[in-house]
Amino acid sequence: MFSYFLRRVILMLPVAFGVSVICFLLVQIAPGDPLTAIMPVDATADEQAAMRAIYGLDKPLPIQYAIWIGNLAHGDMGKSIATGRPVAGEVFGAVNNSLLLAFSAAVIAFPIGIFLGFLAGYFRDTWIDRVVTAISIAGVSVPNYWLGIVLVIIFSVNLGWLPSMGAGPGGSQDWSWDWLHMRHLVLPAVTLAVVPIGIVARTVRALAGDLLTQDFVLALYAKGMSRGDVLRHVARNAAATALSVMGLQLGYLLGGSILIETVFNWPGSGFLLSNAIFQRDLPLLQGTILVLALFFVAMNLIVDVAQAAIDPRIKRS
Amino acid sequence: MKHLTKGFAALVVAASLCATGAVAQGTLRIGMTASDIPLTTGQTDQGGEGMRFMGYTVYDSLIEWDLTSADKPSVLIPGLATEWAVDADDKTKWTFKLRDGVTFHDGSPFTAADVVWNLDKLLDDTSEQYDSRQSAQGKSRIPAVASYSAIDDHTLEIITKEPDATLPYQLAWILMSSKANWEANDKSWEKVAMSPSGTGPWKLDTFVPRERAELTPNEAYWDETRVPQLDKMVLIPLPEPNARAAALLSGQVDWIEAPAPDTIPAMTGNGFVISSNAYPHNWTWHLSRLEGSPWNDIRVRKAANLAIDRDGMSALLGGLMVPAKGFLPPSSQWFGKPTFDVRYDPEEAKKLLAEAGYSVDNPLKVKALISPSGSGQMLPLPMNEYIQQSLAEVGIEVEFMVVEWNQMINLWRAGAADPAVEGAESINFTYFIQDPFTGLIRHLSCDLIAPNGTNWGHYCDPEMQALFDKIKTTFDPEAQDAVMRETHEKFVNDALFLMVTHDVAPRALSPKVKGFVQAQNWYQNFSSITME
Amino acid sequence: MTAIDPLDMPVTEAGKGYWSGVGARLIRDPLTLICMSVIALLILSAIFAPWLGLGDPYKGSMIARLKPIGTPGHILGTDEQGRDMLARLIYGGRLTLFIGLTPVVLAFFIGGTLGIVAGYAGGWVNTLIMRTVDVFFAFPSVLLAIAISGALGAGIVNSLVSLTIVFIPPLTRVAEAVTSGVRALDYIDAARASGASALTVIRVHVIGNVLSPIFVYATSLTSVCMILAAGLSFLGIGVRPPEPEWGLMLNTLRSAIYVNPWLSALPGLMIFITSLCLNLLSDGVRSAMNVRD
């Protein structure tokens, strides 16, 4: 097991390197001058040159990359051009908030998705199956950014039940698990949960359906095992695949929350990213994407290892 | 499952209770359009909004704008300087008497040495306290300043590069941060940002980047009439107009800047108040005057100005606009009495164009740079499309070149002659026009032709230049105002811009907000406000 | 973003009988047929939009802005600039479908080719291609699309580029996996042993077997791609105004939600219906082509 883990980690290193190169190059292809966003509109050419030197934007590309990577090794991701604050602090604070949102969405989506999927798989080809399938297809088909707007109109503006924006009455820094804060989480988390509910339900339905019709299950019944025992058996067999899908979904939730965070003014990484894009804040853009991508890489690793731990056959492939 | 239903019901009940729960008395929460809290260390970023919420609140400048009246254009008043005068013989030498007994929030006294220290912070890159971020915001605002020195604790001397009577307007930009506080924060502006200290009516209490800033009253403020009455003022960046509207309507903020026109009926319908007033802003097309530009013909310029039904545009903006009668808003103290009446007269426009050799069947073709969004641009796309339609009806065919706002700023800096503008003869750029320099001089002065300055269209006219020089050398404020009026009359009579409209700085307020007087200015006074 | 496991694709011997069987199964599936007709209707109306006698999707009137659904002359009302919604929605379908489907088609060819080459060649070619693909896989698709589009700026071409890049890696992976599987089959070895050139083997034996699973997988990506493309426009980094496009219309009509909520919901509804049909269609095609079912 440990050697498998080690091999996976070593395989991950070139990917991480590639990710850093892409993140670095990504902002180099960007047109426009990153400094325009922060200079007063009538700043002179001299003032602009001075700013450029301060941010190291006057050096050749490979040197900029080497400096960037070198600083990264010390946990220094540079300073935001638009705010002058260290990128690392901004990104980790924001990723924290995004994780909060992503986990909340996962907590809503996974149990519901698994429950619905199991229901459909168990009662395959009945009306229950068709209803669940309809729900899950609708879930993956709905543009969630639009759903978010509709929910705000209904639950914040018209009914006044839930807040429409922000991460708590005092901002995200004094987050605590009380209702005063958690109610800010409800609408964005529910909106974000809709797509994974559909995906998890579909996966689990397929798995459960397949397993329940397979010969060994029929054999188990034949051996006189009870329904509950058979189900438990089937669940264990499905767990590995379901786990991998959910692990990936968590990563997608983190990356996919960008649009939702914009709709709800949630101070997470997606919100930060869209600010960085519109202000052409290169260091911030780089840092945010890098941290999210590396998180996703790590998530994949964990999923692989966990899958191998549950179902040893996977190691061989 | 039963538990779940119960839990959900409990959540719903709790939600409805909390949503209506009362907020502490006397707290005003404002949704700004900026995407971040403006720079807190002194000289702010985020444009006019930065100065409004983080500049004149936490800080003071030597000379300030009078923000007490909604009925008349605001004028300069003493701030940290009580009086100032230019030397009778040497017109480059100014003396400022500073206010006695003013202290920073950290308790240190404000003296002339602090002014020198603050100017060095912006202008002297060898000084210990030089801050490139603040300098980027402040340096270009005081082009006239050559040197400065403290004569005594309460007397300051400033020498200008050449005689320049607009110096007081320039100094109204410069905010004074505390030297003692900077030293207490290990001489690090980054640390100062978290706990800044100025002399202003508000103190920065809490600051969460990109999320909120909380300001509390400075009870020891030197102007007793401007000690804030609120317990607290909270600033929240809400760049997305609908998020702003939803936040106000759901009671999460009490005040939002720039509500989207279509959200206004929902707000007024729910008892919210829309506050607006004229202020020195304009929405124009800046015209190229390079050789070969069709705008060199005054008949074409006048025809374009006569072709636009500005009242018709008002519907699009929910009535929140002042139709342009000139380059400056009609209520400006510098408007004067131009002879060219900017109005909607398509027949006259067609006649003028016919004289110039164009008609609807043989239209004049012009190209205009526009941007889908941008600070102060109002609703650029629909408004420009409206103009396109209006101009087409009299015989001017407009082709748009649509670029991102940041790219637009670059093209505006580069000027009409730059290849990057691809021969566009017009640029839709809105202007902050609050003082003689930003209001008139910078757009058309010969020595500021782009890319060296902000004269985008390369206009250069000796008569106009003489007027600009006269503004700079007329030191008597009233006489200077007269020259300003004369200059603006020339702006209008020569139809030097396509003058369309002025924004009215709409903001939507909860009915609980009392005592706000919206001044005709980019900045506002928050001290008089109370919450019911 | 979809639940379909790329490795779960059927490997079948393709032939005339197979395809006619697929056709017969499709015709017996009413839901798939309905979805197929909806998509066909959308595509046809998008293609023939100029001949449908619609209003001008670009020209509006400020006086007639935000008219409700059912207004005479504007059956679906007018948008925030007084432009006819029906015309905007149909012309919008044009651009939305174009930007939503083209990247999948491009990625199908590019990723398919890369995957087949990698899978057939094996060795260092495989390593080079697949490790590069792995790097792109390290980004969640939404993040990658937004990052590239955000860096390049708004515009139709930029959106196509960024979305194509997003969908190449998954298609390459599927193509590689299936090709590797097919290559290991005995008859391919036989063909190679008989001295057929690599190209011939690929053309005759591999493509026929590999195409249908890649195709099925690609169809499952179309709805994701369309939602994502509209999402980019919604964020302001996709199609530029004044072009009609559903995501962008959703964005520009956002503030009208307080004045005329049904009207502003229309573009979102169109995205929803289209992606629903694409998903159902893809499911239908998948089960029709899946021999195990």
TrEMBL record, chain A:
Localization per record: Cell membrane
PROSITE patterns with a match to the protein in the record: ABC_TM1
Entries under InterPro entries matching the protein: BPD_transp_1_N, MetI-like, MetI-like_sf
Transmembrane segments: 9-30, 99-123, 144-162, 182-201, 242-264, 284-306
A GO MF term: dipeptide transmembrane transporter activity
Domain ABC transmembrane type-1: residue ranges: 95-307
Entry-linked Gene3D superfamilies: MetI-like
Keyword terms: Cell membrane, Membrane, Transmembrane, Transmembrane helix, Transport
Pfam assignment, any one: BPD_transp_1_N
PANTHER family: DIPEPTIDE TRANSPORT SYSTEM PERMEASE PROTEIN DPPB-RELATED
Protein family (similarity comment): Belongs to the binding-protein-dependent transport system permease family.
Protein name in UniProt: ABC transporter permease subunit
Species: Pseudooceanicola spongiae
Automatic annotation (TrEMBL), chain B:
A Pfam family annotated for this UniProt entry: SBP_bac_5
Species whose genome carries this gene: Pseudooceanicola spongiae
Entry's Gene Ontology cellular component terms: ATP-binding cassette (ABC) transporter complex; outer membrane-bounded periplasmic space
Keyword Cell cycle applies: no
Signal peptide stretch: 1-24
Residue ranges constituting the Solute-binding protein family domain according to the UniProt record: 76-422
Single GO term (MF): peptide transmembrane transporter activity
CDD domains the record matches: PBP2_NikA_DppA_OppA_like_8
Annotated protein name in UniProt: ABC transporter substrate-binding protein
Main location: periplasm
InterPro entries: Peptide/Ni-bd (IPR030678), SBP_5 (IPR039424), SBP_5_dom (IPR000914)
Keyword Protein biosynthesis: no
Annotated family: Belongs to the bacterial solute-binding protein 5 family.
Keywords: Signal
GO BP, one annotated term: peptide transport
PANTHER family: ABC TRANSPORTER SUBSTRATE-BINDING PROTEIN, PERIPLASMIC BINDING COMPONENT OF ABC TRANSPORTER
Location in the cell: Periplasm
TrEMBL record, chain C:
UniProt entry tagged with the keyword Cell membrane: yes
Endpoints of the signal sequence: none
CDD domains per record: TM_PBP2
GO CC terms in record: plasma membrane
Domain of life, per lineage: Bacteria
Main location: membrane
Location relative to the cell: Cell membrane
Domain ABC transmembrane type-1 span(s) in chain numbering: 93-282
Transmembrane segments: 31-54, 95-122, 142-168, 214-239, 259-281
GO BP terms: transmembrane transport
UniProt keyword annotations, A-Z: Cell membrane, Membrane, Transmembrane, Transmembrane helix, Transport
Protein topology in the membrane: Multi-pass membrane protein
Family per record: Belongs to the binding-protein-dependent transport system permease family.
Name this polypeptide is given: ABC transporter permease subunit
